[in-house]
Amino acid sequence: MNPTEPRYRSGAVARMLRMPVATLRVWERRYGVCAPQLTPSGQRLYSGADVQRLALIQQLVAHGHAIGTLAPLDTEALHAVAATHAATTARPRTPEAAAPLRVRCADPRLRERLDALVDQPLQWVGPGEAAALHLDRHARLLPDAPAQAPAGGPRWGVLVRYAAAPAVAALQAAGAEVLREPADEAALRAWWQRLVATRPTLPPPEAPPAATAPPPRWDQATLEAFAGLSTTIACECPRHLAELLIQLGQFEAYSADCASRGPEDAALHRHLQQVSGQARVLLEDALARVAEAEGLIRSG
């Protein structure tokens, strides 16, 4: 063992992989995915190679491979499984090269490390340009102040060297994927994989608005008059229909009023207003047919 090689405790590894510590220990004890060094006090210490192996296994498990099948494989075999998986699931590609991933980063050292580490093509863009990822690196002490996510909504990654827990928590609360320096290749790779795996997707386009129902055919006074008429129909259909229309009209007006009170439930109440309006039109047609059959209104 190289005494100068960085070692990571199980809690740090779990945070890097965004994996519960309990899962990490089950993978170890039940499946033997790796063999971390044990200190005299019983602490598990993972090497950079261990972290890289765990990140690869985690990625393959997420793609549907069984942990029991992956655990006995060495790193070379795991990479072969990943390559086979990528080859069988990839869509047919045109001869043209894949579009590079647009990344905004002002730190030249970080850009250099990622160019050497990342397999996919990267396009480094300047401030204000559209990007899928925004990366920051803070080499000095980071103040304990509220953090603000970059404009435009890209996935946000931050490297920090000197930062207290409140400063890191503020970054994470603002949506940043945080990595503490110094970070070796395995830690940087795991950080990058989390970033590209959780890039935000565009929200689905809003559905076109439903057709607005026509205004009520009768006002409430007319409906109340219908409800008060006695007819020769034993089931008293005009009265029941008129009462339903009165209630439905009141609910339609209530939903329209709710839709204008604020954005929280506006979409739901717009939908309820549209549905109740459509139901009202159907019941108005039914009442018109019954009223014509009873001679209460003239046809045409």
UniProtKB/TrEMBL annotation:
<protein>
    <submittedName>
        <fullName>MerR family transcriptional regulator</fullName>
    </submittedName>
</protein>
<keyword id="KW-0805">Transcription regulation</keyword>
<feature type="domain" description="HTH merR-type">
    <location>
        <begin position="7"/>
        <end position="64"/>
    </location>
</feature>
<dbReference type="GO" id="GO:0003700">
    <property type="term" value="F:DNA-binding transcription factor activity"/>
</dbReference>
<dbReference type="InterPro" id="IPR009061">
    <property type="entry name" value="DNA-bd_dom_put_sf"/>
</dbReference>
<dbReference type="InterPro" id="IPR000551">
    <property type="entry name" value="MerR-type_HTH_dom"/>
</dbReference>
<keyword id="KW-0678">Repressor</keyword>
<dbReference type="Pfam" id="PF13411">
    <property type="entry name" value="MerR_1"/>
</dbReference>
<keyword id="KW-0238">DNA-binding</keyword>
<dbReference type="GO" id="GO:0003677">
    <property type="term" value="F:DNA binding"/>
</dbReference>
<dbReference type="InterPro" id="IPR047057">
    <property type="entry name" value="MerR_fam"/>
</dbReference>
<keyword id="KW-0804">Transcription</keyword>
